[in-house]
Fold this sequence. Notes:
disordered N terminus; 34% helix
Amino acid sequence: MEPSGRLPPPSQRSATVKRRRWGGLRQQWKLLGLFEIDQQHDFYGLTCRMKEGLAAAIHTSTHTPPANDLSDDDFRSKVTQVHKDFSLETFGGPVFAALRASLGITEDEYLQSLCSESCYLQFISNSKSKADFFLTNDKRFFLKTQNKREIKFLLSNLKIYVEHLRKFPHSLLVKFLGVHRIRIPPGRKKYFIVMQSVFYPDERINARYDIKGCQVSRWTDPAPEGSQIIVVLKDLNFEGQFITLGEEEEEEEGQVEIDTGFLERLNVLDYSLLLAHQPLHHDERNQNLSFASLIVRTKKSVNPGSSPIHAGVPGAVLDDDAGPSPEPDSGLTSPRDRDDSTRTSPRPAGTGADSPDIPDFRAQNRRLLPNLKNPLHVIDGPEQRYFIGIIDVFTVYGLKKRLEHLWKSLRHHGRSFSTVSPQEYSGRLRGWVRDHSQ
């Protein structure tokens, strides 16, 4: 037995201090609704394998610059990389690499965020979905498990999703950055997607909302006053409030109309408009921007010309003969074959002219903030900075949802609920945005 007054060796003391430090951080994350996926966590082994597999996949794309033109083979691409005790499949790798480049996300920073030594965080969602949500330690990217049907839906419509983002670079749709399947012998496998977090950076966000434009089950008890717990509130929690965008209001409503119209044609419903806000600092209000700085903002937000996805002027609707067409068996037509080009698109005034209207150009691109890594979901109003994005776009209005609609119609007669036709759903969400904007 060691003498009672004897100190443990330095290595043991260091380990004890480290455990205490990480223990304190774990407790802090728990208070925020986030759990560090450390060695004691059930998902530790899975997330370590995900990191290792993603590192190899990203290294491959780093040494293969995005092609000037995406081919059908790029959209159908499936690459399997075998590791010691698992394998990782990457679907549509060249397409997502091009999309990341168009968003100004370099492969190095993508690698650094997804594959750093820091543990992923588990996000505890109040969603009814059985999916698991993981967040990179810097909170920039989400990894979400999906079922096979959802992955098949995304990949079968990947061309028209890319075309939509190409025609409307200011789209509020969630930005999918990768689709993968991990296989762990003997028979365990999971599909997962990587997507950009709408709420990034989140340091000063003081309220978060998940909006569906209806009433039934659309209230969440707020966190206790003074608590640091992250609670995502819902439609009824937002009543009596408004999104105040000033000059941006019309453009933002137009973009919501375009994006929900696209989802309507995909025959999906039950998607959410994510909304958060934070007060602007004094030096962030009424910024006097030069035309040169606006050009920098635009380039940093969409990188025109850096990839085949964003060719042309940001915000502009491309010509009818531009871009890839959908798969013949998708059952869908490309957005270019519809009437999107006749809608109002948030585009810079004077595009294609020698002397653009600088005040209008400033108004249209005020939200393209060069010092933020998430400029297409961040919009400044006169007093508040808003984070806005549309997520959860995988629920198809099939037989199951039609029966659910019938049942809810009987149970919630006279009240609005989420399971309605895609046409009613998109129109109702657009109405919510109009009614709550000023």
